[in-house]
Design brief:
Layout lengths: L1 H6 L4 H14 L5 E5 L4 E8 L7 E7 L9 H17 L7 E6 L6 E2 L4 E2 L2 H9 L5 E7 L7 E5 L9 H12 L4 E3 L12 H5 L5 E7 L4 H8 L2 H7 L23 H17 L28
Parallel strand pairs: 3-4, 3-7, 7-10, 8-9
Antiparallel strand pairs: 1-2, 2-4, 5-6, 8-10
Helix pairs in contact: 3-9, 5-9
Bound molecules: zinc ion.
Length: 295
């Protein structure tokens, strides 16, 4: 929670400096991937450092919507990812942690929002051959019910989904696989899928009381489209607002998500210090998407 408190209410350049400082304190030297054109600075950490190993890629965007303290969206995800770097800095399992810039929308109209600039830049500039799967974090600061999205019926067969299902079962963590269309809500998993890596999912935590309401809302898409975020249950109705503050978050939720990520890293069958087994076919390049709504 300390990381969340440090990041909340800061502008994006300050958040970037604070993430770099936190990694420095952990003795970790990241690579900063910049695009001057897109005004993007992604922060990339390989543990252990060096090429070769196939890795699980964990990500969280560090930017926040202007006017929102950005505690749950997404200082919570950043805090969990920093916790993971701390736990795995001994290089036990090959992972990549990416702190994405500019996930939040740079274009915002009543019907259209466009964001995900940091993750689009990443997938265009990097080969995904060494990425076994992507687990992206969004709003992990409240609740004890795992939300995995977007997952349509056929995506339940994805290796990344089955591994998260097994890890949640081992932790007796209740889980909801949500099919959320990208034009309703999206995040940094999307560019990976569009680049041909289907094993890319976003993980969130939800208060269990809100899960039936979320299911009900998703069954009524026209209402969501026209009423926007006010139609969502918590925590989604708070994000991007002045109510997204750290005092509403729970340390237990952040710890729960970190425990899940460690369980996932272990469950993928890495040999300690060795390579990660593959998730499926090599990614292929596909044409780009229309502008997505970002969370
Ligand atoms: Zn977000």
């Amino acid at each position: 929670m300390d990381y969340v408190r440090v990041l909340e209410n800061r502008d994006n350049p300050a958040r970037r400096r604070l993430v770099l400082a936190a990694l420095g304190e952990l003795g970790i030297e990241p690579v900063v991937q910049e695009s001057r054109l897109l005004r993007v600075s992604n922060i990339v950490v390989d543990l252990p450092p060096g090429p070769g190993a196939r890795r699980l890629l964990f990500s969280a965007h560090y930017d926040a919507v202007r006017g929102s303290p950005g505690a749950n969206d997404n200082a919570s995800g950043v805090a969990v990812l920093l916790g993971l770097c701390h736990k795995l800095k001994d290089g036990r399992f090959p992972i990549r942690a990416v702190f994405f810039d500019r996930e939040e929308a740079w274009l915002r109209t009543p019907l259209l929002r466009a964001g995900l600039l940091g993750s689009f830049h990443y997938v265009w500039k990097n080969s995904l051959r060494d990425v076994a799967a992507v687990y992206n974090l969004e709003f992990c600061g409240t609740g004890d019910y795992l939300g995995v999205w977007p997952v349509r019926a056929k995506e339940r067969r994805l290796h990344a989904f089955q591994e998260v299902e097994k890890a949640a079962a081992r932790l007796a963590l209740p889980m909801w696989a949500a099919h959320i269309p990208w034009f309703i809500l999206s995040s940094d998993h999307l560019p990976f899928r569009l680049r041909g890596l289907p094993d890319a999912l976003t993980l969130s935590l939800l208060p269990s009381s809100q899960v039936p309401l979320l299911e009900e809302r998703l069954a009524d898409l026209p209402r969501l489209l026209f009423r926007g975020r006010t139609a969502w249950p918590e925590p989604l109705s708070s994000i991007h607002t002045a109510r997204d503050i750290s005092s509403r978050l729970s340390e237990g939720s952040l710890e729960l998500m970190l425990t899940l990520l460690l369980e996932l890293s272990q469950g993928w069958g890495f040999s300690p210090g060795g390579a990660c087994p593959g998730a499926g076919p090599e990614p292929r390049r596909e044409p780009g998407p229309g502008p997505p709504a970002s969370s």
